[in-house]
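Quick look at the format.
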Amino acid sequence: MAQSNSIPETGFLRLKQILGPKGPIPVSKSTWWVGVKSGRYPQPIKLGRRITAWRAEDIRKLIENGAP
């Protein structure tokens, strides 16, 4: 798994920046969304009608706490 160093300090990340193989969290989209629904993964922020993102701080914290 990639280090949280590749995640910016602040800002927003899209799903393709979070999930593997390029992202730091090696889970599938379906697993991610099940985890979001169950509370295992952070809740997204709607930036627009068709734009969903996550706070970089939340993803950083998730990685530091041993995600997935």
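Next, a different chain entirely:
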Amino acid sequence: MGQQTRIVLIDDDLDACELLKIQLEDGNNMSLTFSTNGDDALPLISKEQPNIVILDINMPGTHGVKIGAALAAEESTASIPVLYLSGMVSPEEVAALAKGEDKPSIISKGSPVEDLIVAIRSITTH
């Protein structure tokens, strides 16, 4: 089945984090570590060295896009792919934004978990 995909999720919604942990780890060969505090993101990601980071965009404290920029600027984390998770866009808007891209960089919180799994696999297998 291959090596397990290690994911770090940063999202201020604890219930969403716990639900995604269950959904992604259940039979998908994925492990998820999460934090609900954007200020904890960089130390957690540096420690975990995941295969992918999923960031909520709109959070109190450190904004998800700022975390993504900080990851890209740091040599030890620059190669870790980032997938943004947003409640501000619909699945249809994401599809229109990602048209022609083989690796989506944003997914709607309204998307089915299966779409998130497909996006994670697409990003981490390229």
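The longest strand covers residues 5-10.

See the schema section for token definitions.
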